[in-house]
From TrEMBL:
<feature type="transmembrane region" description="Helical">
    <location>
        <begin position="320"/>
        <end position="341"/>
    </location>
</feature>
<keyword id="KW-0472">Membrane</keyword>
<keyword id="KW-1133">Transmembrane helix</keyword>
<keyword id="KW-0812">Transmembrane</keyword>
<feature type="transmembrane region" description="Helical">
    <location>
        <begin position="178"/>
        <end position="198"/>
    </location>
</feature>
<dbReference type="InterPro" id="IPR005625">
    <property type="entry name" value="PepSY-ass_TM"/>
</dbReference>
<dbReference type="Pfam" id="PF03929">
    <property type="entry name" value="PepSY_TM"/>
</dbReference>
<feature type="transmembrane region" description="Helical">
    <location>
        <begin position="130"/>
        <end position="157"/>
    </location>
</feature>
<protein>
    <submittedName>
        <fullName>PepSY-associated TM helix domain-containing protein</fullName>
    </submittedName>
</protein>
<feature type="transmembrane region" description="Helical">
    <location>
        <begin position="7"/>
        <end position="31"/>
    </location>
</feature>
Length: 356
């Protein structure tokens, strides 16, 4: 147990700042859309997703920014009135329901985009993403070892999130109590974040656990050159998946690639859904479709991890839980390290002089 305490303390001290940054930034991102509604009056309006209304708007966005510079468009809905165009160079733009650009910025040119980059990539691209994933896995281990350490003293647990005083023993008690209260949400949020980064190994484990057979790789679809008719694309999606609503529209990513429309069907947890309609810009006819509700067991389980991490389900109650969990990670990391650094050092006793 002493080794476990020492390892927990040192690992927490080393990772505390990183975990605090991820926890605090994640907490703030929970209320990103609320912030945008406060800043942009257009965001408080409803967006029509009907093909005859949304199609011309998407066509205007693609004509304005060009398929070469536009990566995808994240669509608004009845509760959020802005579309977000994401560019290949990392910049973006908010566009209202009529297709007018409300704001445009370069990479990390807005506070919420900078915060997203900090949380997902630590402002360091793919390397930062891998480090953030390791921090998520470490947070899971720290939470589990912390529970093991406090288990013998659980009788002293109290529903307290604020220390009685600034004395070290009271700070340690608060660290114990806060860790026990938020242990399960922390494990959930940290593990799902780790799974998003290291999706390959996690998917492989899920296939074994869920007894999902191996699937043959899908063939690459060939599309001809042309301009995507988004009205026809939306209508084809509506016909193929009645009841689904569009979430992401992507022009062809390269020569010979199809345009894609991503949809969310009733019963799908993922905010953007995992249902696809792939269109040929040359003919504006569907090349293929993928039903998000007909995926393998492993894929359905994996697709549920992102909304659990990003508060995409559960309404305001889960938003609040995610926000408080991120704050608790920040407090546990910083306060735990502070008490570790204030640990009193034992003074060596001098050996008495030998009598002559």
């Amino acid at each position: 147990m002493m080794f476990l305490r020492t390892a927990h303390a040192w690992a927490g001290a080393v990772l505390s700042l990183l975990i605090a940054v991820l926890g605090l930034s994640g907490s703030l991102l929970v209320f990103k859309k609320d912030y945008l509604r406060a800043v942009f009056p257009e965001a408080r309006e409803a967006v029509s997703l009907a093909p005859e209304t949304l199609g011309p708007v998407l066509g205007r966005i693609e004509a304005t920014y060009g398929p070469e510079g536009l990566q995808y468009v994240s669509l608004g809905d009845a509760h959020f009135g802005l579309h977000k165009a994401v560019f290949r160079d990392g910049g973006g733009a908010y566009i209202d329901r009529s297709g007018e650009t409300v704001a445009r910025w370069a990479k990390n040119g807005r506070a919420e985009d900078w915060l997203f980059d900090l949380h997902h990539y630590l402002l360091a691209g793919n390397t930062g993403k891998l480090i953030a994933g390791v921090a998520g896995g470490a947070a899971v281990i720290l939470a589990l070892t912390g529970l093991i350490i406090v288990w013998p003293t659980l009788r002293m647990f109290a529903w307290r999130v604020w220390p009685k005083s600034a004395r070290r023993r009271d700070l340690l008690a608060q660290h114990r109590d806060l860790g026990v209260i938020f242990a399960l949400p922390i494990i959930l949020i940290a593990f799902t974040g780790f799974a998003m980064v290291y999706s390959g190994p996690v998917r492989a484990v899920l296939k074994v656990v869920t007894l999902t057979p191996a699937e043959a790789p899908s063939a690459r679809l060939a599309a001809g050159p042309g301009t995507t008719d988004w009205t026809a694309t939306l209508a084809a999606a509506q016909e193929a998946f009645p009841g689904a609503y569009p979430r992401l529209a992507s022009p062809p990513r390269s020569e010979g690639a199809p345009a894609s429309l991503r949809l969310r069907q009733p019963g799908e947890w993922h905010q953007n859904g995992r249902t696809y309609v792939l269109m040929d810009p040359a003919t504006n006819r569907p090349l293929a479709t993928e039903d998000g509700r007909a995926l393998s067991r492993a894929d359905r389980v994996f697709n549920a991890l992102y909304p659990l991490h990003s508060a995409g389900i559960g309404g305001r109650l889960y938003d609040l839980l995610s926000f408080l969990t991120g704050l608790s990670l920040t407090v546990l990391g910083l306060a735990g390290t502070w008490t570790f650094l204030r640990k009193p050092r034992r003074k060596r006793r001098k050996k008495p002089a030998l009598a002559a």
